[in-house]
Every structure is written in structure tokens, then in C-alpha cells.
């Protein structure tokens, strides 16, 4: 039920962190993987995927250039059938809302929201034609909460949750499941500033019932589940993998 044998997954933002862990986790479950990066520096993750015995290909594309994304995705889909899409790539800009520039707001929206919509649409159309497919968004705790000094990121991640539900409502009748994973506080580059903050880091950790920051690998089980036949009746769900953060 949870085997991904015979399927191909496209995972965006796979060089490090959550994207890398999910790409390798899907490969271990049997999927071949298209690895995305905005630079061609994917040697390590490609080696990890190939070590599982699965195929790995690279797709180098700048997701911030949304005007060219449709064409780039079309060229990719001409080479590979994508059965599973994981919209993981994202950026964050930290500043108090009163100082948050519109350029930073727009940069976050381009990558975290607009690219996720455009890729979902490009990959989703052939999925709808085949009557099968899995799309997994990477949401956030800030899909539920306001956060501090991350107004653009918070707005984008709230919108990602809404996009997940809207696509699910339209595409579930045609055999395409759209869901999201909302990571808790995970030890990645995006949270480096928080983990280095001597006041906020212990305050965050103290609220996590699991008593620790999550690791990227903690998300792979949820990704494999949502990508598998086991989730065929799961539609429009935002699955928190947060060590219990939202429960407290």
C-alpha cells in the first residue's frame, strides 16, 4: 500500500533540508526522482538517491522567474511523466512588518506561492487526464499562526494551505489527491536565525512536547504516506508534523 514502485516524483528545492530528505525518502519507498535546484549543485542528493537503486534526474530552474516557469515545466514534462509533485522550495525574509520591503514580499510570494500554483497546474493537467496523481505542498506552522517578523512568509504559507484545499476540491473527483505537510520547527537553514537566538530558541523548544527541534528526516514518513495509495481518500488535508507544537 505504501510502495512507490513504478512512479516518478518531482521534488523542488532538493539540495538541502526538507526537500533533500523527502527526495531520498520517496526513493527509498521505490520512486524515481526528479531533483530540482536553482543551481546545478545537486551531486550529493543525486548520489543519495542513486544509492537506493532508483533513478535520479536533475531539473535546474529558477522558480523566482515565474514568467518562464510554465515553459520550463513543459520541457520537463516532455521528458518525464510526473506521478508525484512535492512543492517544497521556499524562501523566507525576516524583518518587522513596518520595515518589510515590497521587494522582499514579492520575492517570497513568487517562490513560495506563485511557483507552487504554476507547477501544480502544469503537472496537474496531465494527472487529471490520466485520472491519478499526488500533489504535496509544504505548508508551515505559519499556515495556522502569525509568527514574528515574517509577514510575507506567513501570508504565503496561509495561502498555500488555501491553495491545497481549493485544488483538492476541484481535482479529487478526477483521482488527483492534493494535500500538504505543515512542518513544525525543523533544524534547517531557514530556521538558523531562530536556533541561534539565545532567547527565542529555548522558548520555542520549551513549547514542543517532543522536547526537541525536528529533523528533516522526520517528515519523510508523512511524505511517503501522502504520495502512496494509502492516501487515496485523503484530500485537502494539512498534516502537521510538529512534535506536538499545535497541541500545546
Layout of secondary structure:
Layout (H helix, E strand, L loop, with lengths): L7 E4 L5 H12 L3 E6 L5 H9 L4 E5 L5 H14 L4 E4 L14 H29 L2 E6 L12 H21 L4 E8 L8 H4 L4 H8 L12 H8 L10 E4 L7
Parallel strand pairs: 1-2, 1-4, 2-3, 4-5, 5-6, 6-7
Helix pairs in contact: 1-2, 1-8, 3-4, 4-5
Give an overview of the whole structure.
This protein has a seven-stranded parallel beta sheet, sandwiched between helices. The longest helix has 29 residues, at 102-130. The chain has a single domain (8-247), classed as Rossmann fold (3-Layer(aba) Sandwich). It is an alpha/beta fold and 248 residues long. The radius of gyration is 17 Å and the shape is globular. Helix 1 runs parallel beside helix 2 (43-51), helix 1 crosses helix 8 (220-227) and helix 3 (66-79) runs parallel beside helix 4. Helices cover 42% and strands 15% of the residues.
Keywords:
248 residues, alpha/beta, Rossmann fold, seven-stranded parallel beta sheet, 8 helices, 7 strands, 42% helix
- Provide the domain count: 1
CATH class: Alpha Beta
CATH-defined topology: Rossmann fold
Shape: globular
**Sheet with the most strands?**
7 strands, parallel
Count of strand segments? 7
What are the secondary-structure elements, in order, as H or E?
EHEHEHEHEHEHHHE
Radius of gyration: 17 Å
Q: Provide the residue-averaged pLDDT.
A: 97
> Low-confidence parts lasting 5 or more residues at pLDDT below 50?
none
User: Which class best fits the helix and strand makeup?
Assistant: alpha/beta
- Helix content class: 40-55%
Gap from first CA to last CA: 33 Å
User: What portion of residues belong to β-strands?
Assistant: 5-15%
Number of helices: 8
